[in-house]
Write a structure and sequence with these properties.
The protein is of the alpha+beta class. It has 16 helices and 16 strands. The strands form 3 sheets. A 6-stranded mixed beta sheet has the order 1-6-5-4-2-3, sandwiched between helices. Strands 7, 8, 9, 11, 14 and 16 form a 6-stranded antiparallel beta sheet that branches.
C-alpha cells in the first residue's frame, strides 16, 4: 500500500514538471539542525519543497494564473468602488449595466427584461427617503399613484442640472389646495399660510433643498384659491417665471369634467412646454371627496389624462391611491385626511401629496443614475428629415385594398385579397417611423387641431418637415386683475371698482345694473374670453360682454349657479375676431339669474383674455 501511494504521488508531481524524491525525505529525523537547534536553510528549503509536493495543484494555479485572474477581477473591483462613490459625487456618468448568467442560452436574461427589472427596482428610488416612502405606502401603492409615468426625459434633465450643483427655479400653479387653505391660518393669511410647514409645497421645497444642497433653489407658488386651468392657460406667465425649470400643476379639484377644459389644459401645457428653458412639468392630481360625491370617479382627471399623455407629462394621482379606501371607510377617511368641507386636505392629506411627488422624483433620480439622459436622435431620423418615405418604411410591392361600392356584392378580384403570400411578406418590411426631433419635443399641433389645417394626404409629400416644425403658435393675451406687476387697467370703469378678497383674489366688481367697464386687448388667433366668478352665495347677478361695437353679439354671463363650490370660470364671448388691437366691454345686466333675490346684481370680473 505504501509503495503504491508513493508511486501515485511521484506520478502527479512528475506530471507538473516537479522532481521525484524517495520516501525517506519525509522522515522527521532526516532534517539537519543548526547548533542552536533551528533547522538549517537547506532544511527550510526542503520543507518548502515538501509543501509544493503536498499541494502541487494550488501552487501551479497561483504561479501561472495570478496575472490573468487579477486582470479579470480588476474591472469588477473598480466598478464596485465606482458604485460606492457614485451617489455622493455629482455629475458622474450613470453606472454601467451589468448582469450575470450561467452561460446557458436558455437562461440568458434578455435586455428588455433586465431593463424592466431596473424600472421596477426604481419604484422606491435609491435614497433612504425613497425606501422610507416604499415602506409606508408599499410599492404597489406608489405605482398606482403614477397615473401617467411618461418618458421622464425632461424630468431627468432637470434632476441632472440639480445634481451638478446648479440652482433650480420651481413653480406651482393651482387652486386653494396648492395655496394651502385651512391648514395654517394666521393673522396675515386668514385662509391659510401658503408657506406653512405642513403644506405639500413646503415639504417639496425641503426635499429639493436636502437632496440638492449645493445651490439655493428658488420656489414660486403662483396658486390662487378658486382659480382653475382655464385662467392659467392665458395668465400663467403672470405667476411664475418663464425660465422655470420645474412646474407643478394642481387642477383636479377646481377644473370641470367638461370637454371644454381639455382645450384649456392643452393650451396650458403647450404654453408651459414652450418656455425658453423647456421645463419639466408634473401634474399633481389632488382629490376631493366632495367632488367625488358629485361626479364619482369621473372627475377632471378624465379631462387631463389624454392631454398629459399627448405632451408626455407625468401625472401623479392621489385618487388612485385612496379611492378604494374611501369607498370602504368613507367617514374615517374623510375625517383623517380632509377638512370639514371635504374639499381641502388637512396637514395629513398634504403629507400624502408631498410624499407622492417626492416618491416619483426619487424614482426618476434612480432612472437617471442607471440610464443617464436620453439620446438625441439624428435629424435624419426625425420629423424634420428631408429623407424620402422609402428610407423609413419599405413597401416593395403594391397591396391595394379594393374599393367597396356595393354593400351586398364584393368587388371584382376580391379572391386575391385572400392570397397569403403577400401577407407573409409584410413581416419583412422595414418600418422605422420618424421620431420626435428631441426627447424634449413639444407636439407641433394642439391635440384638437384639425389636421386639414396642416397637411393634405391627397397631395405629394412635402420635401421637408418645415410645414410642421415651422408652425407659428398663437400668442396669449391676458389683462389680469391678479397680475402683481401689470394688473388690469380698464380704459373706463364707471360704476366698477377694484376689490380684493381676503388679501388673495383680485377682481373688478360692480353692483349697479347698466354699469360698464372697458378693457383694451390684443388678438392673434381670433378668440376672446372673459374670466368671472360663480357661486350660489354672495348675491351674484349677471353681465353682458362683447368685443368692440358688436353689442348685438353680446354673451350673457350668469354669476349664480347651484354647485357647492365657489370658483371663477372662463367663457368665450367671440371666436372670429381679426388679428390686432381691440377692446371688450362688460355691462351689469338689468335682470338676474338668482333664484330668490331679484335685486342680486353683484358681479366679479377677474380677467379679459385672448389668443
Amino acid at each position: 500500500m505504501g509503495a503504491s501511494s508513493d508511486s501515485e504521488d511521484d506520478h502527479e508531481l512528475l506530471s507538473y514538471g516537479q522532481p521525484s524524491s524517495s520516501s525517506t525525505d519525509n522522515h522527521p529525523h532526516s532534517q539537519p539542525l543548526l547548533s542552536n537547534g533551528e533547522p538549517s536553510s537547506s532544511s527550510r528549503s526542503h520543507r518548502h519543497s515538501s509543501f509544493h509536493r503536498r499541494y502541487p495543484t494550488l501552487h501551479y494555479v497561483v504561479k501561472k494564473w495570478w496575472k490573468p485572474l487579477f486582470a479579470i477581477s480588476l474591472p469588477f473591483f473598480l466598478l464596485f468602488i465606482y458604485a460606492l462613490i457614485h451617489p455622493h459625487v455629482k455629475g458622474l456618468p450613470p453606472l454601467p449595466k451589468v448582469h450575470f448568467s450561467s452561460g446557458s442560452s436558455s437562461e440568458l436574461l434578455p435586455e428588455n427584461v433586465y431593463e424592466e427589472k431596473i424600472v421596477e427596482g426604481c419604484t422606491c428610488g435609491i435614497t433612504d427617503e425613497g425606501r422610507r416612502l416604499c415602506e409606508i405606502y408599499n410599492e404597489e401603492g406608489l405605482r398606482n399613484s403614477r397615473l401617467v409615468q411618461g418618458s421622464g426625459a425632461r424630468m431627468r434633465r432637470m434632476l441632472q442640472k440639480a445634481r451638478e450643483g446648479e440652482a433650480l427655479k420651481i413653480g406651482v400653479l393651482g387652486g386653494s389646495v396648492s395655496a394651502c387653505h385651512g391648514v395654517h391660518p394666521s393673522a396675515d393669511y386668514p385662509q391659510g399660510d401658503p408657506a406653512g410647514p405642513g403644506c405639500y409645497t413646503t415639504l417639496l421645497k425641503q426635499w429639493f433643498e436636502n437632496t440638492f444642497s449645493d445651490a439655493d433653489h428658488e420656489f414660486m407658488n403662483g396658486a390662487i384659491g378658486g382659480m382653475d386651468s382655464s385662467y392659467y392657460a392665458f395668465c400663467g406667465t403672470h405667476h411664475i417665471a418663464t425660465d422655470t425649470d420645474l412646474v407643478v400643476l394642481e387642477f383636479d379639484v377646481n377644473d370641470q369634467a367638461d370637454l371644454l377644459y381639455q382645450a384649456f389644459f392643452d393650451q396650458l401645457l403647450r404654453a408651459l412646454s414652450e418656455f425658453t428653458t423647456q421645463p419639466a412639468i408634473l401634474i399633481l392630481g389632488a382629490w376631493s371627496p366632495q367632488v367625488a360625491q358629485d361626479q364619482g370617479y369621473g372627475d377632471p382627471q378624465i379631462v387631463h389624462a389624454p392631454i398629459s399623455l399627448y405632451y408626455d407629462v407625468p401625472y401623479i394621482s392621489m385618487k388612485r391611491l385612496m379611492f378604494n379606501h374611501y369607498l370602504r371607510f368613507p367617514k374615517s377617511t374623510a375625517e383623517a385626511f380632509f377638512q370639514p368641507d371635504l374639499v381641502h386636505p388637512k396637514a395629513r392629506g398634504h403629507r400624502i401629496l408631498a410624499d407622492l411627488l417626492i416618491s416619483y422624483l426619487e424614482s426618476e433620480l434612480c432612472m437617471l443614475t442607471h440610464y443617464g439622459l436620453p439620446v438625441v436622435p439624428s435629424i435624419s431620423e426625425t420629423i424634420s428629415t428631408s429623407e424620402p418615405f422609402s428610407n423609413f418604411v419599405d413597401t416593395p410591392f403594391p397591396l391595394d385594398t379594393l374599393h367597396l361600392i356595393d354593400p351586398i356584392t364584393p368587388p371584382p378580384g376580391w379572391e386575391a385579397t385572400f392570397d397569403t403570400e403577400p401577407l407573409e411578406k409584410l413581416k419583412l418590411e422595414n418600418r422605422k417611423f420618424v421620431l420626435p426631433t428631441t426627447p424634449y419635443f413639444v407636439p407641433p399641433v394642439g391635440i384638437f387641431t384639425p389636421l386639414r389645417e396642416v397637411v393634405n394626404p391627397t397631395k405629394e409629400d412635402p420635401s421637408s418637415g418645415k410645414h410642421i416644425t415651422g408652425l407659428i403658435q398663437p400668442e396669449l393675451f391676458c389683462a389680469d386683475a391678479n397680475d402683481k406687476e401689470n394688473p388690469m387697467k380698464p380704459t373706463s370703469s364707471e360704476g366698477w371698482k377694484p376689490f380684493v378678497w381676503n388679501g388673495e383674489k383680485h377682481y373688478w366688481v360692480s353692483d349697479t345694473p347698466g354699469a360698464r367697464i372697458r378693457v383694451e386687448i390684443k388678438v392673434t388667433a381670433g378668440r376672446v374670453a372673459v374670466y368671472y366668478f360663480r357661486s350660489q352665495h354672495y348675491n351674484l347677478g349677471d353681465a353682458r360682454c362683447w368685443v368692440d361695437d358688436n353689442e348685438k353679439g353680446a354673451v350673457h354671463l350668469a354669476g349664480y349657479w347651484k354647485k357647492q363650490y365657489n370658483v371663477a370660470i372662463v367663457a368665450y364671448i367671440d371666436e372670429k375676431v381679426t388679428p390686432g388691437d381691440h377692446y371688450v366691454t362688460c355691462e351689469v345686466a338689468q335682470n338676474t339669474s338668482h333664484p330668490t333675490n331679484p335685486d342680486a346684481h353683484h358681479f366679479r370680473l377677474t380677467a379679459i383674455m385672448a389668443t
